[in-house]
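We were asked to recover a plausible sequence for a given structure. The inputs and outputs are reproduced exactly as logged, with field labels preserved.

PROBLEM: sequence recovery
POSITIONS: 237
GIVEN STRUCTURE:
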């Protein structure tokens, strides 16, 4: 959304800056004859605060429909006032008008509903972007573990975890239930003092963190460590 100012970034014909419809829709004959269809409001109103339309046509306008459209267009523009400040792009999802990842996340959650993985996923600025992106893939079950590959039709000899050949390799097994992963989580619990039950899913563990840690800063630290430990699990396996 734009905050209209001098008309420097608003298309004269193609943007809805003057009423419900674009001027292209309201005055199709004039639009077809304009030599520069991507012109800005500033180009056609001459840069004056008191707007005066200045057309630039491929040929001289004819009587009839073209002349009537020109008269109607000038009537619509008559009395319109430009501002000295430049046009500004506004972000509707935030009252400040400024884009933020947080406001986009809230908008997506509202759109996708209560079952969206975004509701429980926390983006942690204290770890590298690649770790956040990787954990997001874990949340939406997009890690190419053998069980997942089998489900999408890739032929495999076995979906059993190759490390101990006991359980099927899915996301929760790889990061929590595998003996190797369980040992890493035990070391982490002993060091952090944060008691976590890793018998469920990874999603449940992240949700549980909200109940275990009250301080926002401590919660962020714990999440950063948990995300990093998950990556260690993968690299170690």
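RECOVERED SEQUENCE:
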């Amino acid at each position: 959304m734009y905050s209209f100012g001098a008309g420097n970034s608003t298309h004269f014909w193609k943007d809805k800056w003057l009423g419900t419809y674009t001027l292209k829709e309201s005055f199709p004959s004039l639009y077809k004859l304009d030599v520069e269809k991507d012109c800005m409001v500033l180009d056609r109103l001459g840069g004056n605060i008191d707007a005066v339309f200045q057309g630039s046509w491929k040929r001289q306008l004819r009587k009839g429909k073209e002349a009537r459209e020109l008269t109607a267009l000038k009537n619509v523009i008559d009395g319109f006032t430009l501002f000295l400040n430049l046009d500004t792009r506004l972000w509707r999802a935030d009252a400040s008008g400024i884009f933020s990842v947080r406001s986009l996340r809230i908008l997506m959650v509202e759109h996708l509903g209560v079952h969206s993985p975004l509701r429980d996923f926390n983006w942690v600025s204290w770890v590298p972007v690649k770790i956040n992106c990787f954990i997001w893939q874990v949340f939406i079950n997009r890690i190419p573990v053998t069980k997942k590959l089998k489900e999408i039709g890739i032929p495999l000899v076995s979906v059993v975890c190759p490390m101990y050949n006991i359980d099927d390799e899915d996301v929760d097994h790889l990061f929590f239930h595998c003996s190797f992963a369980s040992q890493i989580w035990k070391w982490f619990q002993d060091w952090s003092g944060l008691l976590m039950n890793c018998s469920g899913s990874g999603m449940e563990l992240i949700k549980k963190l909200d109940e275990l840690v009250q301080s926002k800063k401590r919660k962020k630290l714990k999440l950063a460590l948990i995300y990093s430990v998950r990556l260690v699990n993968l690299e170690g396996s």
